[in-house]
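USER:
Before I trust my own judgement here, I would like a peer's view. Write it directly below this note and I will take it from there.

ASSISTANT:
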Amino acid sequence: MKKIFTICLMFIFGHFGFSQEADTVADTTANALKDTTYWNSELSIGFNLNQASFSGNWKAGGVNSFALGSIFSGKANYAKDRLSWDNQVELIYGIVKNDDLGLRKSNDRIFFDSKVGYKINQKWGYFTSLNFITQFTDGFDYSADDPVLISRFFAPAFLTTGFGFEYKPNKDFALRLAPFSPRFTFVTDLDLINTVPDNYGVPAGQKLRTEWLAFQVFMTYNKKFNDNLTLNSRYQIFANLQTLEFRTIDHRLDFTLIAKITRYVDVTFTSINVYDIDMVEGIQFSQALALGILYKVSNKK
C-alpha cells in the first residue's frame, strides 16, 4: 500500500508540475505572438488618367483633352497609455490640357499635420499641434486674356500651431479647441503684391505675417462605412482675436470620398472650400472627380 501511495503522490505532483510548465510555455508563446507595436501607419498612392480626342470632322462636337491626377497620403500614429502622437501628410497634384489652351493644373495641395496629445480621461485630453498648408507650383488667373500669376510655392503658405484641449468620443471624430493658436503666413515672392494687392494679409515689402493672439477649432471626421466606401474630412476655423469680427473669421473644409470598385480601382471625389477675407471676398471652392488606381498599405490588418 505504501508503494502504491508513493506512486500516486509522484504522479499527482508530476502532473501538476507538467501543467505549470505547459501553461508557462503557452503564456510565453501568446506574448510572443501578441502585437506589441504602438504605431499605426498607413500609406496610399493613387493615379488617375482621363483622355478624349475627336477628328476634325466629328459633327457631335467636343474638345480634345488630357488630364492626369495623383494623390499621396500617409499617416503614422503612436499611442501608448495616455500619450499619443498623430502625423498626417497629404499631397495632391493634377494637370489638364484642353485643345489649344496649353497645360494647366487642376489640383494642387500640400498638407501636413502633427499633434501630440495626453489623455485626461477616456474622451478629453490636452494637445499641442502644428499644421502646414501650401502648394507645389505657380497658380494663374485665366479670366483675363493673358494669364496672371496669383500664387506659387510658399506664396502663400500657412503654418498654424495650437495649444488646448481635444475631445475624442470615438475613433471616427475628433475636436480640437485651441484658445492659443499663433499662425504664420508666408509670401516669399515680394513681387506677388503687384498682381495680388492684398498679398494674403502679409504687409507690403515683407515675407511673413504673424498672428499671435488667435483661436482655432479643428475637427476631423474619418469614417469607413464599409470595405468599399470611405470618407475623410476636416474643418478648420481660425480667428485672429486682435481683428475679431464675424467677417474676418477664416473657415476651411476639406473632404475626400473614396468608393472602391475593385481592389486597386476606385472613384475619388475631393473638395476644398475656403473662406478667408485676406485672400478674396466670398467663398473659394474646388472639386475633382476621378476614376483611377489606388494602392494602400498598412501595418495593421
